[in-house]
Amino acid sequence: MENQNQTPRYKKVLVIDDTYVDRYIAERNIKKYGFAEEVISKESARSALDYLAGLADHPEELPQLIFLDIRMPEVDGFGFLAEYENLPEQVKSNSIVMMLSTSLNPDDHEKAANNKYVSKFLNKPLNQERLEEISQLLSGDSSWKKAG
Amino acid sequence: MNLSIKNRLYLSFSVLVILFVINGVISTVIIKKNNKLSGHITQVMDPSIDKMYDFRKMILESKMYITNWVFLRADEQDRKKLVIIQQSEFPAFKVELEALLSQWKDKKNANDLRIVMANFSTLIEREKEIMNSLQSFSDYDDPITRLSAERTLEDEILPLADSSLGDLQVHLKEANLERAQYKSELGQSTVILRIMIFSLAVTILLLGVFLAVYMTKIITQPINKINDTIKGIARGIIRPLDPQNKKDEIGEMMVSVNELSENLLAKTLFAKEIGKRNFESRYFPLSHEDVLGHALLTMRDNLRNGEKELFKTHLQMQTFFRNIDEVFFSVNTKENKLLLISPACEKIYGYSETDFQENSNAWHEAVISEDRKNFDTGYQVLHSGKAFLQEYRIQHKDGSIRWVETKITPSLDKHGDLARIDGVTVDITQRKNAEITIKESENKYRSLFEKMVDGVYKSSNEGKFIEVNPALVKMLGFGSREELLAIDIKSQLYFEPGDRDAAVHQDKSDGLSVFRLRKKDGNEIWVEDRGHYITDEHGNILYHEGILRDVTERVKAEFQLQKSQKETADYRKALDQSLIVSITDQNGIIQYANENFCSITGYALDELAGQDHRIINSGYHSQEYMKTLWETIAKGNVWRGEMKNKSRDGTYFWVDATVVPFLDERGKPYQYLAMRVDVTERKEADEILKANNIELKKTNSELDKFVYSVSHDLRAPLSSMLGVVEISEEETTDPQLLEHFGLLKGSITKLDGFIHDILSYSRNSRLEVKKEEINFQEMLHDISNHLKYMSGNNRQIELKIHVTEGKPFVSDKSRINVVLNNLISNAIRYQNPSADHPFVDVKIDMSDTETDIIIRDNGIGISKENQQKIFDMFYRVSENSVGSGLGLYLVKEIVDKLDGKIKIESELGKGTSFWVNLPNNSINESLS
Q: Which residues of A touch B722 (CB under 8 A)?
């Protein structure tokens, strides 16, 4: 609550989630705690990928952070990551991907940990605690960004 | 005298026989008479005279006893004797004498003696009268009676007795005289007999002498003459006898001898004519039986023919002489003149007869200089009359050297000087060359015999060596050849002396045999005998010869081989008993299969032999699997593995197979031995198990997926709810509303925790225990971070962490995480509100083999009775408990799963201590 009126840390974040409630919670909290200036919500991996691909020529428009749900119809979180790999380098180098899920399946955790684009596995909901955690992680430690 | 010799001999012997007969008759008569006379004397006269003496004694005794009877009344003895004489002696005597008397020749004397006996009988009657009158003493006392008796005695008895005695004496005298007369007669006739025998003997002797002398004179002399004549004939001297005009046999014989002489003379003359080759002379045989005559005629004819033949032969001999290869020669040594030499000289020497005639020394000069000295030395023996025989070399006229053999027979003259030699020379060059060749080859073979490694022998049938080579002497350990030749093979070389007999009798054929012999030092040696028997034309064994080879090493190796073969066979038998065995060649063609193989595959052995091993291939295994198998064994390595095969009826069976390649000397497999154990049952069970496992894994993974999906799908709305509640909380300051939001959040958290626990439980019961290194520091840090946000309405609690590092601790990270999470969260949850300073003290003590985890708090504590139940499923201590009732149950399950221990110590109102002990799995790992 103390961060409520601070200058937003990030210009743009992307939330990919098929559940409306979760997209709403994310948008609301991000806005409320001034985490980002702009929140783009996509309800499917496909539309998110199209969005990102569409911004290839305008890197400055790309989101700095991507919150990615795992369980989604058609293309799930890992499916998104597989196609994300095919995106141009300037798209990928601009964004930090964070998994956001309620899954307790260790396979999901492991897969996420092993994916070079995923920086963090977060438990839902994306509330103030999570956002603080992310802030500490990204500001306090400059080595968060994985090599490659 | 014109009597023949035969008649004269008859006459002489007749005279002698007649004389013998006369003499014999006379002697017989005289001897017969003498016998009769001497019989009369001994059998009649002598006993008669004895009886007469007895009679006289009897009369005297009678007279004496009767006198005593009359006058001496008391003498009972005499009385008895008198009665005996009267009653027994005299009657017996009378009979005996009468028997003799009847044989007397003087009948008058005999009758006189009978009268005497009659008188004595009368006497006895008188005596009996007296005896009757004088029976008892009373009789004697009667004077009349007694007087009467005395009168009878004196008047009658005594005179009668005396007269009888006198008569008897007279007769006795006469009898003695008569006997003396007979004896003198006997003496006279004996003398006559002697004279007769003597005179006859003299007569015969004289006659014999006369005849002998006479016969000699008239027979021997003429016979000697004839004998001389015949002897003369035998010697070829024929001269007629002077016939003495005798008409006896000798005279006839002389005439015959003269005839014989004449005939012989005729034959002799004939033979003489034949001898002079006068084959025309004639002779007339004396008779058909004149064998000699006929023989002479035949001989004449034969000789006549022979003469012709001989002439022919002579011509042939001449030809032969000229043509033979041998050179005959004769030399007159005194004049050193060659008398004769056969034309063959030109062949041998190259010089003609004429050459030799001109140079009588040519044959000597032809001898080559090396042999000449020896030749001359040998030649000298001829002077002593001995033959010369020598082989030497000559130089042919063409210059070539030839071997010849010369035999010379010398003839000596009467002074013993060499007069002439006759000889023959033969060309023996070819033979000699052959001999030299043979000798060279013999030397070669001798060298081989001496130097060869094998033993060579020649042995007699009796069991002695005749010849041995040095190798055999050495082989049998003897010091010298002589030593070995001296031994008895049967008893000294054979361990079982019967072996040699058996060998000799049974194996007369040539051949190879192996047997054992005893060396000199007693050790055994095995030899291989390649020998044969040499027999004469009747098949009798002369000797045995052969080659002995020392094969001791080989035989021992064979024994060893046999032993190991037997062992191999035993092993194989053992294998066959228990395993399914087959042997294939390098191409997999079955060469052998045991009974187990046949019975499990259902094929008969003869169906399998020669078949490709793939006949039992099931097709189950991948080509790669089979390829690996073949590559492994083809490289000479053992392959081991399980295999599914197909039997004849199409059923499948599993075997645990070991295939062992048998390598040749180059290391290449030439056959494969496959041993199998039927594991069909186990394999089927395995397969079922495997299928079950796969099924189970599938089910498990499906279940896993399901559990995660469910948990996710349950938690997703929960987290959404929580998110919305949190947003709403920010929107209001209404205490009522905030309290409701708080309750809502509590329920959401509780439900979420429950889903967590269910999931953990499910994972613990299904997932295998993982092994990974545990970093307690990091784990506790995460937990404390996580728990920070769950404290909720509770006060802040101090979490003390104390880790004693040891060796890396290996266990299941997520399970330990659940344990620590539960225990620590419980301590936070059930803190004592009245405590001044709530804390949780986590102490971890790591050693090499195990780790102790102690979690102590000063919370509300658990009562003794509840301590028993806290690990039960869905047990909750109080109504206010926020947990699912699964937490401690899960902790206990996990600790059990990790082979650990858990204990609780607690006091109500003071606090609780959990002690967990877990083994370090790295120890097990390093051990295994």
A: 125, 127
Buried/exposed code over B437-467 (b: 16+ C-beta within 10 A; e: otherwise): eeeeeeeeeeeeeeeeebbbbebeeebebee
> Does B727 reach chain A within 8 Å, measured CB to CB?
yes
Q: pLDDT under 50 in chain B at which residues? A: 1, 926-928
Candidates B708, B720, B789; nearest CB to A22? B720
What per-residue confidence (pLDDT) applies to B181? Answer: 86
DSSP B612: B
Q: What is the pLDDT of residues B54-106, one digit of tens each?
A: 888 888 888 888 888 888 776 778 788 888 888 888 888 888 888 888 888 77
Query: What is the interface size between A and B, counted as CB pairs within 8 Å?
Result: 58
Q: Which residues contact B618 (CB under 8 A, 6 or more apart)?
A: B644, B645, B646, B652
Are A106 and B814 a contacting pair at CB < 8 A?
yes
Domain residue limits at B647: 579-678
Cβ-Cβ contacts under 8 Å, A19 against chain B: 716, 720
- Give the CATH number of domain A10-144: 3.40.50.2300
Q: Which two tokens stand for residue B520?
A: 């000199």
* Structural domain includes residue B283: no
Give the best residue of A20, A25, A137 to mutate against chain B (max B CB count within 10 A).
A25
Whether B723 sits inside 8 A of A29 (CB atoms) is yes
Q: Does residue B192 fall inside a structural domain?
A: yes
Mark B874-908 as b/e (b = at least 16 C-beta within 10 Å). ebbbeeeebbbbbbbbbbbbbbeebebebeeebee
Q: Specify whether the CB–CB gap between B893 and B767 falls below 8 A.
A: no
Residue A145 has pLDDT above 90, yes or no: no
Of A21, A103, A129, nearest to B708 by CB-CB distance is A103
Is A124 part of the contact surface with chain B (CB cutoff 8 Å)?
yes
B729 domain-assigned: yes
Q: Is residue B747 part of a domain?
A: yes
| pLDDT exceeds 90 at position A23 | yes
Task: Write phi, then psi, for B592 (nearest 5 degrees).
Answer: -150, 145
Residue B111 CA to residue B114 CA, distance in Å, equals: 5
Mean pLDDT across chain A: 84
Q: Which residues of A touch B715 (CB under 8 A)?
A: 102, 104, 124
β strands within B623-665, DSSP E: 639-646, 652-663
**Per-residue confidence (pLDDT) for residue B194, from 0 to 100:** 85
Q: Please identify, among B148, B176, B205, the residue that sits at the C-terminal boundary of a domain.
A: B205
- A126 touches B: beta carbon within 8 Å: yes
ipTM of this predicted complex? 0.82
* Confidence (pLDDT) at B233: 78
